[in-house]
Amino acid sequence: MTDVIDDRDIERALVVMAHPDDVDFGSAGTVAVWTDRGIEVTYLMVTDGDAGGFDDGMTRQEMAALRREEQRAAAKAVGVTDVRFLGYPDGRVEATLELRRDIARVIRQVRPDRVLMPSPERNYERIHPSHPDHRAVGSAALDAVYPDARNPYAFPELREEGLEAWTVREVWLNGGPVADHYVDVTEVFGRKLTALRSHASQVAHVPDLEGMLRGWMGANARAAGLPEGHLAEGYHVVSTA
């Protein structure tokens, strides 16, 4: 099991996700804990979520604009104000050199100690976290952390932009087949729920969103050995220093 860096030693964190709402389903509680502890958190969404939703009367451009606004509102609920979008096409993300460069650029801009991202591995126990966009973003983001962002000679155009190399100390993978670290988010569950409900275009049809979340997160808490009634989010933590 990897030793996890104490939050008191983390100044900045970057969350890289495929779609608006990904961070809120899996990690909004964790982000709320971090911001409450004074960690500065930035969100990077690779797509605008233009292939999401259920409204045939809305154009894909309108859906993308709506989902960007929903994500900004959700971020605000957990203390995040810096929300960035790369604008890749939803449902067609691949772990290309271009995507690695674009993520490495933001890593060098933000200079985070910790990066949270989707797992690049498929989870056969729960298929939904293993959307191909999620796995592609996880693969590209992990490569952007190591070796791209820290290698001053990778993507020389980034140095030409004035962005010097940066070494991320730790990566947190979400949604994969392995979890070896859990965050107790019981006290901030209400904020997580508010964040997720901000994505009305995606979750308004869910009959018992709170119950669904409590089911998942209660199982995480039990796996973490927390007392009955607690809620947790789980990760595979990787040292990348």
Automatic annotation (TrEMBL):
Example GO molecular function: hydrolase activity, acting on carbon-nitrogen (but not peptide) bonds, in linear amides
Keywords, alphabetical: Zinc
GO biological process entries: glycoside metabolic process
Superkingdom to which the source organism belongs: Bacteria
Protein name: N-acetylglucosaminyl deacetylase, LmbE family
Organism of derivation: Thermomonospora echinospora
